[in-house]
Amino acid sequence: MPRFTLARFRARLYRYFERRRSRRQLLALDDRLLKDVGISRAQVHRESRRRF
Q: Are 34 and 40 in contact (CB under 8 A)?
């Protein structure tokens, strides 16, 4: 059974773009909304710099 399949590649690519979108949305939130969610600005910056 091959380890590389098109379906796996698509799923990984989809997850990559979802994480990228989510991290960009977090960066766009203002401090008031981050406080409501319970995340600090420093945590958002750490998350946005994480590798995919």
A: yes
Cβ atoms of 48 and 27 closer than 8 Å: yes
Length of the chain: 52
Amino acid in the structure at residue 16: Y
Look at the block and give the residue holding tokens 């979108």.
21
Considering only CA atoms, give the Rg of the chain: 15
For every one of its 52 residues, what pLDDT tens digit does the chain have, with 9 covering 90 and above? 567 899 999 999 999 999 999 999 999 999 999 999 999 999 999 999 988 6
H-state helical runs in 1-52 = 6-28, 31-37, 41-49
Residue 10 main-chain phi, psi, to 5 deg: -60, -45
